[in-house]
Amino acid sequence: MVRAAVLHGVGEPVRIEEIELFPTGPGQVRVKVAASGVCHSDLSLADGTLDQAFPVVLGHEGSGTVVEVGEGVTHVAQGDPVLLIWAPPCGECWFCEHAEPHLCVKAMDAARVPYARLADGTEVLPGLGTATFAEETVVPAAGVVKLPRGAALAEAALLGCAVTTGTGAVWNTARVAAGSSTAVIGLGGVGLSAVQGARVADASVIIAVDPDPDKRKLALALGATDALEPAPDLGKRVRALTGGRGVDHAFECVGRAATIRTAWGLTRRGGMTTVVGVGGKDDKAEFSALELFHFARTLTGCVYGSTDPARDVPRLLEHVAAGRVDLGALVTARIGLDGVNDAFAAMREGRGARSLVVPASA
Ligand code: APR
Ligand code: ZN
Ligand code: ZN
Q: Do 211 and 250 fall within a single domain?
């Protein structure tokens, strides 16, 4: 039995319960979780913004140590430090074969299959296939990437979602060129990672936007050149910083139609707006036929920073080791499993950047 933060229904608090993980099957890996970031997508799955069946153990931004490998697993062994990948590419589908592994048709397969049971025998689903709000989890082999032994294992958890998504949006999806002007809307773990990605890409202007002054301060420390409130004069202020044009690239890192419109409005004619946030299916953004023509902007979605984990995880680890990407600065709280409800509450109010759940601590 292992302790896990179990969610039984939309809007309920998670409860710490003992669950029994199913035996590690062929092609699976059992991992002792070192740490798990709390991502806004966990909150969106918990509050019904995104669809989720119950009961479930959420958590999809995790790192840990391999406890056991199933038959046929050779790329990791017991004792290896690993990063968990919530959308592991199968390597064989049309998207994987056409260099779009982040759109793999099988990436979400594990999330649909129960992986454990509660004390009363009820089967439990693994949130996004990873279920890292627990002491241990069982995941598909493709969902673990070996980490170097020297890396700070707990902080490396952030590479599982926020950092890969935020930097990947800049490097892979938008392909920001050196000297570009950028704006990042929403400075949670994802947005602050986009800011860092823009700095590494040598963007000349990085405008960080968030209502929370602490996060704007953090963004400036992480490389933003300007930090602004989402006030009514935001567009005017952004144009003043960009030769009257607007930014070459805007990144929406909130997950709402309203902030997609904001990001779009900050983008210059012919520029690109990248939607990194994940919003609800009924939250509609409107564009007039004329403005689509007139502004000639590109509006693109972005899944998991268009990442190919095999390529991007080693690249990110190099940036972290060289001090170009700061993981520690993103962590504003370290909590036990029993702190997940408080972390969700803080996130709802926009307080704090990343909360890091360390299951061994409580
Ligand atoms: N303008 C700018 N920022 C805003 C606004 C707004 N109108 N409203 C909220 N924000 C800020 C919040 O203050 C917060 O700092 O957006 C930030 C969102 O951060 P988190 O809640 O920590 O979310 P994060 O985990 O970073 O994820 C961002 O990416 O992966 C998706 O589902 C995820 O949609 C979510 C998005
Ligand atoms: Zn996430
Ligand atoms: Zn695939």
A: yes
| Gap from CA of 191 to ligand 2 centroid (Å) | 12
In this predicted model, what pLDDT tens digit does every residue of 314-324 receive, in sequence order?
A: 999 999 999 99
Would you give the end-to-end CA distance of the chain in angstroms?
16
| Residue 52 to residue 45: CA distance in whole angstroms | 6
Q: Tell how far the Cα of 41 is from the centroid of ligand 1, in angstroms.
A: 10
Please check whether residues 10 and 131 belong to one and the same domain.
Answer: yes
Look at strands 331-335 and 354-357 and give their pairing. Answer: parallel
Confirm if 292 and 262 have CB atoms less than 8 A apart. no
Q: What is the mean pLDDT of the chain?
A: 97
The tokens describing 140, both together, are 């598909």
Q: Which two tokens stand for residue 273?
A: 């707006």
CATH code, domain carrying 335: 3.90.180.10
Query: Is residue 212 in contact with ligand 1, taking CB distance under 6 Å?
Result: yes
Q: Are 69 and 141 in contact (CB under 8 A)?
A: yes
Q: Are residues 124 and 15 in the same domain?
A: yes
Cβ–Cβ contacts within 10 Å for residue 318, how many? 11
Contact 254, 274 (CB under 8 A): no
**What is the structure's pLDDT at 361?**
81
Whether residue 182 contacts residue 207, with contact meaning beta carbons closer than 8 Å, is answered with yes
Global confidence as pTM: 0.98
